[in-house]
Amino acid sequence: MDSSLFLSQLLNGVQLGVLLFLLSSGLTLIFGIMNFINLAHGSLYMVGAFIGAAAFNASGSFVFAVMAGMLASAAVGLLLEHGIARPLYRYDHLYQVLATFGLMMFFNELAIVIFGSRPYYAGIPDYLSGAVTVFGSPYPVYRILIIVVGILVAVGAWYLIQKTRFGMLIRAGASNSNMVSVLGVNIDLLKKLLFMLGAALAGLAGALAGPILSVQSGMGEPVLILALVVIVVGGIGSIRGALVAAMIIAIIDTLGRAYMPQLLAPFMVPTSANAVGPALASMLIYILMALVLAFKPDGILAPRKR
Amino acid sequence: MMDRLKNGVWLIPLLFLVLACIPFIADALGEPFYITFFARVLIYALAACALNIILGFAGLVSFGHALFIGLGCYAVGILGFFDISNGWLQLLAALAVCALVALFVGTVCLRTSGIGFIMITLAFAQMFYFLMVSMTMFGGDDGLNIFMPSDFGFFELSGSREVYWATWAVLLLLTIFLFRFRKSPFGLVLRATHLNPRRVNALGYSVFKVQLAAYILSGMITGVAGFLLANLTAFASPSYMSWHMSGELIVMLVIGGLGTVTGPIFGSIIYLVMEEVFKGITQHWMLLMGPLIVIIAMLTRNGVDFMKLLRINTNPSEGVDRADETKPAAAGDAS
Fold first, then answer.
1. Which residues in A lie closer than 8 A to residue B244 (C-beta atoms)?
2. CB contact under 8 A, A290 and B114
């Protein structure tokens, strides 16, 4: 195995992990405090990607594009929270799943109506398009930027949750939201802000991912499924679990896809290794999920509930 | 006589009589398309009835039931690929594979409940979806054409009409089965696990085993729907396993009423007819369907029962039905 190739695959894994963390942290917080399962989270990611790409193509400013993507997702998130999520908080998960499934259909089709069904071009500025040498091999600057942004957001989220009053209320709300409400905190406002925060993070992930993935209708679904696996593995409601699980899942998935055929080669004839390898690689993370659930049904870092 | 009419026992023969007339009406109108369309409706109805066993009776929201439709399809597709067109063999393979996969998936999924169950069933369905996408040998993303219809010896599923009648017969048998199943000892215990699992355990039943048995049964029947769908479309594709399919099945079930006997059939008729109408209006029909699903969710969460609005009794019953008298607790009240 070539070690510099291995390292750049590892960095690709970390970069996917960062995107997954941005998505799943919002999803897990929204579930943890509001008991709400939001399948339309993938649509918020898509909104971020489309608006980010359109804003960049219109203005040429990358910072503005990312901001626009985040703001658009947060605004859509606010509308969703107010119109659809809020009336469903108290009800069975079945209806939450159904309503957000309908929303997802709507947003996917809306994206086709507005931007067409072919992938929409998302560019990056010149100063981010080069490559730098990492561990002796060239690696795109843009992907490093994603990793750095992810680390900053993770640190920011940790600070917000652990060190601020808002974070304290979120943690209290996750344990017992009725009690927090009785103590005179405007829990409705708290939920609204949290939903918008989750939506903004999804939009950030979308705006960042746009230039390296194809921006098109339905792009949110594969990552949403991965994010669901992440929060199940990490422990539903735990942001720390989401971080750890996002990294584990992304690295295993990336390395599996890159190396599975080679790993199988000694045991099989080459043609079947090439056929079975990708198939097995695509199943790896689900097998991991099944194993985690078999030993720890609540996930690896489940929050303690009272 | 009046009582029987009132509690809807006559609805079942009436419904199936009407469904039996459809091929003849389609012929009279000279529109063979209607036979294909209603064959698809009945296949979805079959899958929705199967999903009803686990979602309606046991209250477990499986968001991955398209998995079993896909497995049923590929049982026909892959055996056909190896020149095996014996329908009995294909059906047996579909049932066996679905039972095995349901045993494995169910054992893992049923370790969790509520939200975890939803996400994990979804994730497993996606796992098989990606598995079939990466199996380039069997067509991968493009799917697998099926050149030989399933051959049962005395008849072949060679066209829409044959598939229609086969589905009609299977659905009739399933409806009669479910009518009795609801009030069978197993059915009552299964429905009780939804109302109060702790008490069911205390009575000496294993909630896990009861739910797992129901999940396997449900998976196998859904597999039969997949088997029929493969014959109708002469095609097996990973898209049959996609979560859109799973979601649509849940919508049909919710329209028809959870845990009812004939509800899923009405639900799938209503859903697919609406879809067809929307497709006639615009090619972007999902723009209309999506919000409609949201509205359906918003209405039914408060206990709106579309079948009651249409004055259709989807729960034909004779005698007292004890388990109906208690409503399942709302999500917030559990534990």
1. 105
2. no
A105 and B300 within 8 Å at the Cβ level: the answer is: no
pLDDT at residue A1, rounded to an integer: 53
Write the CB contacts of B207 (distance below 8 Å, at least 6 apart in sequence): B193, B197, B200, B201
Chain A's closest residue to B250, CA to CA, is A98
- pTM equals 0.87
Give residue limits of the domains in chain A.
3-295
From B55, B112, B122, residue closest to A293, measured CB to CB: B112
For B105-172, what is the HEC assignment? HHHHHCCCCCHHHHHHHHHHHHHHHHHHHHCHHHCHHHCEECCCCCECCCCECCCHHHHHHHHHHHHH
Tokens representing A101 are 């499934």
Which one of A106, A275, A282 has the shortest CB-CB distance to B290? A106
The pLDDT of A29-43, averaged and rounded, is 85
Check whether domain A3-295 has CATH 1.10.3470, yes or no = yes
Distance of alpha carbon A211 from the chain centroid: 16
Residue tagged 């970069």 (tokens): A15
Spatial separation of the C-alpha atoms in residues A289 and A227, rounded to whole Å: 12
All residues of chain B having their beta carbon less than 8 Å from the beta carbon of residue A90 are 330-332
Q: How many CA atoms lie within 13 A of A283 on its CB side?
A: 17
pLDDT tens digit string along A77-108?
A: 999 998 888 888 888 888 899 999 999 999 99
A299 and A236 in contact (C-beta within 8 Å)? yes
